[in-house]
Structures are given as C-alpha cells and as structure tokens.
Amino acid sequence: MTVESIDLFVAKGQQAVDGCELRTWHNAGGVDWYSGIYWETPMRGRENLPVVDRREIETGLRSLGLPCGAVVLTHSSLRSLGNVIGGADAVIDAIMEVIGPKGTLVVPTLTFEGFEKAGRRFDARTQPSESGLVTEKLRLRREARRSLHPLSSAAALGADAESITAHHEDTPCGPGSPYWEVWRREGHTLFIGVEFACNSLFHVAEEVAAPAYLTYDFESDVAVTDCGGNVRAGSYRRYACGRLGIVRYLGKLGQVYVNAGVVRTTPIGAASVRLVPAKDNVQLAVDVLRRNPEWILEPESLPLSEPLESNANRSG
C-alpha cells in the first residue's frame, strides 16, 4: 500500500519567528521551491504506526466538538497521524465533512523561503506552501482561495473562503488577514499532531496587545500575482522579530490554555489532536502579553504570577 505520509515542515521546538520556525524532512520527500513540484515517497520504518482512514479522522473531530458550520484554522502534521489512507486529501475531506457546507477550513500557506528564491516576488497560483503537505494540497484545490500577503498567506476552502482571504493587505496577522478573520468570526483553532508552538492566532493577540518588542519591517514594491493571474505592486509589513533575534516561546502558552480549561484533546491515529476556541486562544494570549510580555520571550517555563481565566468564564 502506498501511503502519502510526508511533512515537509514542522514547528521547531517552542520557537516562533515570523510565525513558526520551520525545517525540512529531507528523508521523506521534498519540494522544488521555484517550480512548486512535489515528489512523494512511502515512509520507511513506519510499518508499526497505525493505519488511519478518513472515517476515523471524522469520528475524532466530532468527539472534539468541532461544530458544523465552523470556521476552523488548522495547523497540522500529516505524518503524526500514522499511515493515512488517502494522505493529506483524506485529512482535508474529513474536516470538510465535519464542518459541512456552511463551514470554512483555513490553513497557513507561509512562503518565507520561496519569496526569497523567487526574487522577492509572490505568485498565489504557484508559490508552494511551506506549512506542510495538508496546506499545500488544500491550496491546490480548484475551489480554494488564497490571500495575497507575500510571506504569510493563508488558503481557505468552504463557504466563507472568498471573504476570509480577500483583504490580507498589510501585516501578517492584523485586521483584514485570514487569521484575524478566524478570531473575529469566533472560529476555532485545530492542532493536528503539533504543539502550541505553532499557533498563528498568537500573532493576532500580538496585534491586539501591541507589546513593546513587536516591530515591523517593510517589503516595498513587491510584485504580487493573484489567483487570476493579475499582477500588482504592493507594500507589506512583516514582523521584525526574526531579524532582531527576538524569539517568542509560544509553546509555553499551552499550559495557560490547559489551566483555563479551553483545550479539548483526543487521539486520532498516533496523533494528539487539540481544539481551542479562537476567542479564548487570542484573549488568553492578550492577557499574558498585557500583564508580562517578557514572559513569552523567556525559554524557561516560568509561571505567571496569577492564573488566567478563559474569557468564556468571566462575568465581566
């Protein structure tokens, strides 16, 4: 049996620079960044991992309470599930089946390396996603829509795909971005086999809280090609943390979310899968950043001075 079990990139430790810091699974497969051609190979040494099908994924997502009609931002590691029959497409189809025709699936399709290799240009039609095979398979679907930020784009599939991706014209995760829209629309964040180190909505919280460490660089006169082949020049902001050597340890927030009681967890195949409401994801991170922004910059798991409560549990 041939199994698509490739993750091109995963979150590195608990670090996040301009989003998740990424690395390549060289032993699994690869990508020609300029042409966007993927090649896939069976994963040797994975014979003892469970075989997972679409129905099992659907059952697990329903047990998490992922609602029909949801807007869900998904961070995923395909290989974490085991040997998935149907590969990345089975994961996408399972999520779409659970959220139904009124739901929308959103995934990050980051392009930091591709942007540089393409001569600081961005083509939404051909620039491969650097956020894993699930995200690449989704953005290649004919009915998918993709935002136009040249470094931090997102792709979406479903009822609100067009409106969620239409106005990504300034910062990676600020107003108008797909990530901001997931929060504004009270969606959910789904983590399939990845830790909270990979959490795009944390950057929405940064935009809201505006901690002192958060500054921007500008990419000016970038040639951007949309999905219709139209080319325009634009200027976009990007987070300057990477250039300045500022590391945010997002993984530490996992315990904050767990302590607040906003995380639902279930096993699917070999993966631990988590679901967090977007409003709680952002609000709890905003609370941390407003109380003690330096905490997220410290690698040690230092406790906060006081416990944080979920926004949903507050009386006022």
How many discrete domains? 1
| Cα separation of the termini | 56 Å
Strand portion, in percent? 25-35%
**Overall geometry:** globular
- Tally of helical runs: 10
Multimerization status: single chain
Specify the biggest β-sheet: 7 strands, mixed
| N-to-C order of helices and strands | EEEEEEHEEHEHEHEEHHEHEEHEHEEH
The spatial strand order of the largest sheet comes to 11-12-9-7-13-18-17
- Integer-rounded radius of gyration: 18 Å
Structural class: alpha/beta
Number-wise, the strands total: 18
Mean pLDDT: 85
Helix content, binned percent? 25-40%
Question: Spans of 5+ residues with little confidence (pLDDT < 50)?
Answer: 1-42, 305-316
Please describe what this structure looks like.
Mean pLDDT is 85; it is low at 1-42 and 305-316. The protein contains ten helices and 18 strands. The termini are far apart. The chain has a seven-stranded mixed beta sheet with strand order 11-12-9-7-13-18-17, sandwiched between helices. A three-stranded mixed beta sheet has the order 10-14-15. The protein has helices at residues 54-64, 87-99, 112-117, 133-139, 161-165, 178-184, 201-209, 241-244, 253-259, 278-291; strands at residues 9-11, 15-16, 22-24, 29-32, 37-40, 51-52, 71-76, 83-84, 104-108, 121-123, 145-146, 154-158, 188-192, 216-225, 231-239, 248-249, 264-268, 271-277. The protein is α/β, with parallel strands linked by helices. It has one domain (9-292).
